[in-house]
Design brief:
single chain; 248 residues; mainly alpha; two-stranded antiparallel sheet; elongated; nucleotide-binding; ATP-binding; RNA_helicase_DEAD_Q_motif; RNA helicase; Znf_HIT
Length: 248
C-alpha cells in the first residue's frame, strides 16, 4: 500500500497539469495519505487491548468449573494407586468417606452395601420393645416381631360422629368397605421404640391428614389408592407400612 503512494509524490512536481490546476492538487490523495498512517495505528492498539483481555476471560472461567458428581456405581471408579485409600467393599479407589461409619468407599453403591452389612441386626433391635431388654429375654423379641396393627383404645372409643367430624375438618374422603379409622398421632400405631424415636428425630411430630388415614390402612395390609397435594406426606404414608412389613 505504501509503494503506490510514494510514486505519486515523486511525480507531482514533474507534471505541469497539477501546477496549472491547483484544485486538482488539493484533491490529490496527499491529505488522505498523511492521515492513513495515523489511521493504521489504532488497529495495532486494538490488537494489544484484545490480547490483554484474553487472560481476564480465562480467569473468570476457572471458578465456573463444577465439581464432578459423586460416582454412583463402583464400575465407574478406578483402581487405586500405591498409597491411596481403598474401598472397604470392593477394593477400588476409596475416594469418599461413609458419613455413618467413617470408612472409605468408592461410590454410592458400595456405601449402601456397607451400611446394609453393618445393619443386618437392625430389625431385631427395632422390634424390641425396649432396646436395653433385648439381651434379657428372647421371648419378648418374638412377640414384638409378630407385629400386627390393632386400633388404639383412644381411636376405638371415638364415636362415629367424632370420626366424621375429624374427616370433614381435615378434608379426608374415603371409599371402600371397612376402612380403618384415621389415627390422630403416630403413637396410636404402637410402632416399636426405635421407629418412634427415629420419627421424632426426623421431625415427624404429628401425622398429616393423608398419613392419618393411609398409615393404618397400609399397616393392615390392604391395597390403597390415595390422592393428595404435593408435599402432603404421601411418601411417608407409604413407607411406614412398607418398613414395618419389610422388618417382619
Amino acid at each position: 500500500m505504501f509503494m503506490p503512494r510514494s510514486l505519486k509524490i515523486k511525480r507531482a512536481p514533474e507534471s505541469h497539469q497539477q501546477q496549472q490546476n491547483p484544485k486538482r492538487s488539493k484533491a490529490t490523495p496527499e491529505d488522505t495519505v498523511s492521515t492513513s498512517p495515523s489511521d493504521t495505528c489504532p488497529p495495532d492498539e486494538t490488537v494489544n487491548l484484545e490480547k490483554e483481555e484474553e487472560p481476564i476471560q480465562i480467569e473468570t472461567e476457572e471458578p465456573e468449573e463444577e465439581e464432578e458428581p459423586v460416582k454412583s456405581f463402583k464400575k465407574n471408579q478406578r483402581w487405586p494407586e500405591p498409597g491411596e485409600p481403598v474401598c472397604i467393599m470392593c477394593g477400588r479407589y476409596g475416594e469418599y468417606i461413609c458419613d455413618k461409619t467413617d470408612n472409605d468407599v468408592c461410590s454410592l453403591e458400595c456405601k449402601a452395601s456397607h451400611l446394609a452389612k453393618t445393619c443386618l441386626d437392625f430389625g431385631e433391635k427395632v422390634f424390641s420393645k425396649d432396646l436395653q431388654e433385648v439381651s434379657e429375654s428372647s421371648s419378648s423379641v418374638d412377640t414384638e416381631q409378630s407385629y400386627s396393627y390393632k386400633e388404639d383404645v383412644f381411636i376405638s372409643e371415638l364415636t362415629e360422629e367424632q370420626v366424621q367430624r375429624v374427616k370433614t375438618e381435615l378434608a379426608i374422603v374415603t371409599a371402600g368397605t371397612e376402612v380403618c379409622r384415621p389415627i390422630i398421632e403416630f403413637e396410636h400405631c404402637n410402632f416399636p421404640t426405635a421407629l418412634r424415636l427415629n420419627l421424632k428425630k426426623a421431625g415427624y411430630e404429628a401425622p398429616t391428614p393423608i398419613q392419618m388415614q393411609m398409615v393404618p390402612v397400609g399397616l393392615t395390609g390392604r391395597d390403597v389408592i390415595a390422592t393428595a397435594d404435593t408435599g402432603s406426606g404421601k411418601t411417608v404414608a407409604f413407607l411406614l407400612p412398607v418398613v414395618m412389613h419389610a422388618l417382619q
